[in-house]
Amino acid sequence: MRKFYLSLLSLAFVFSVQAQHQFQKRTYTQSKQIKCTPEVSEPVNSAPPAQAEPKPNIGISSSAKSMSLWEQVIGYTTYDNQSNNSVQPRIYVDDTEMGHASWTMSFQSSGWTDRGTGYNSGAGYIWSEIPYDRQEDVRTGWPGLMKTGDGGEAFVCHTGTGNVSLVKRPTIGTGAWTLTTIPSSLGMDILWPRSVTDGNTIHVIALSYPTNGGGSLLNGVDGNIVYFRSSDNGATWDIQDHVFDQLDASEFADIESDSYAIDARDGKVSIAVFSEDHDSVLLSSDDSGDNWSMTIFMDFPIPGYIGDHVTDVGEDGIIDTMLTSDGVGSLLIDQNGVSHVSFGEFAFFDDTEGDSLYTVFLTDRLLYWNSTLPTDSILVIGSYQESEFDNNETNDITIDQSPDYRCSLASMSTMAEDASGNIYVVFAAADELFLGNQVFRHIYVTSSSDGGANWMAQVELTPDLDVNEYEYTFPSVYKSVDNILHIVAQRDFEPGLSVRGDLDQSVENDIIYLAVTTDFDITPGVMPNEAADFNLYPNPSDGRVLIQGENLGGMTLTVHDKLGKELVRTRISKSENAALDFSELPSGVYTVTLSNGSQKMTKEMMIK
Description:
Elements: E1 2-7, E2 23-28, E3 64-65, E4 69-77, E5 91-93, E6 99-105, E7 116-123, E8 126-127, E9 141-147, E10 153-158, E11 165-169, E12 178-181, E13 190-198, E14 201-208, E15 225-230, E16 239-243, E17 260-265, E18 268-273, E19 280-285, E20 293-298, E21 322-333, E22 339-349, E23 358-370, E24 379-383, E25 410-418, E26 423-435, E27 439-448, E28 459-460, E29 471-477, E30 480-481, E31 484-492, E32 509-517, E33 535-537, E34 544-548, E35 556-560, E36 566-571, E37 578-581, E38 588-595, E39 600-607
Parallel strand pairs: 1-23, 3-28, 25-30
Antiparallel strand pairs: 1-2, 4-32, 5-6, 6-7, 7-8, 9-10, 10-11, 11-12, 13-14, 14-15, 15-16, 17-18, 18-19, 19-20, 21-22, 22-23, 23-24, 25-26, 26-27, 27-28, 29-31, 31-32, 33-34, 34-37, 35-36, 35-38, 38-39
């Protein structure tokens, strides 16, 4: 059983400033790999951490906003657990600039026997009709979407029993999908895969089934990483069942489901393993997976730690607390071959041996490291969003108001790079401005233009003020950026999950596509001004129109068809006379609405 506490950090927005911890209690039954239903009980000891050292902070400003954003619902699901920990790549853009996205989809309220892959594609804000049929004929989950080197597309998923599967079709965007099983002779179930392509090569990692699910130890580890490689786009697999010598019982008692990420580029492959109670490590290969080395990026000072033992590192009778990963992270190899990782933060200690409990302090910081840095040279690059309107600079979120995702209040990161070498980290974080019975998470981005040495102030990408009570989680960004971040995420009206954690009532969650330009506005947030009326010119038009008015900057613009279906959502970046192009929309009459949360104005627009 593990005990969760909430560490509410009051971050100063300068380098190397000490952060203050406050603590709230949360307790779970211990089932690290399978994420069982929690049982709440009081911890044995609620003493705060004694020796956790804060990390250097990168400047994080409050309530900055992106000013150019498209948002569209592209799917639905009642199965709202897109990942147990790290989020897999679930979106890419092909050579014709068409976007393609996947998600775990179901329309049942329990059991989820219809669970499978939801898939949609589109250009800009014109995506295909929302799908209601999974792509496979069997129950699957955790699809990681990718384009293959032979002009096709594929995703790797698991069925829950047996080996992981490759689902592929030869042409992007069209044709039937074919499911094949990736061969394995381990004799045990393999689950929770991650996959990536590099030219004609497909790299896949997954986890052997842990003992509490009926599996057995692999290389002495209870749930271990297994690696597969195909050099011919999935036709054959020249590496099967590879278990890394570096991941053994001397350091790892277990590895948790989905607590890992993989990337590949120009023959280099990297795998990151994010662990709560063991080292967090980077495995790297410079020869496309033939040979591997390991680097520790966040050290856990008790090698091979086994739960339910006291964390007395110095054996001096003092219980030590270690800052560690929350198990939820992302990985990117940049154009120079440098591996970048970002992940949420926990603090960990165990004060009583033999009581089947250990304690995790839930913090509100997003961390960063890259392969040019020494072990434990960790930077803070993001945090929960402090409200600028509550007359204080402290995190007022209590443990009861924190929905249970078993990760930091700033976590669920995903990473991308543009042609100029700018690195982007998109993540979900609690937003104190939207705090009711529970706090809502929204999506943010931060960026570095110097290889990770310095990071800009985090920018909020969601929500629009007129739909502020949306919870946004599990973002996945396409790793190649032109001038747009292409993101797929999950949203609904209730913080938390129905599949695990809070065990909320099962409802349909939206799967949304976000297209965010990278010309971020990082000025301090202000409440929007009241806008005067607006006009559309010309009207009728061919879809290219000028929005004329005053105080339009920051307002949300939506376009609906005559049936009331929302087709376009964007945010106006200019105060007056914004030029917009709707020429991709079919001829017809549309409703254009401008809003700022309290004020709405509507016009009809005719496209000929």
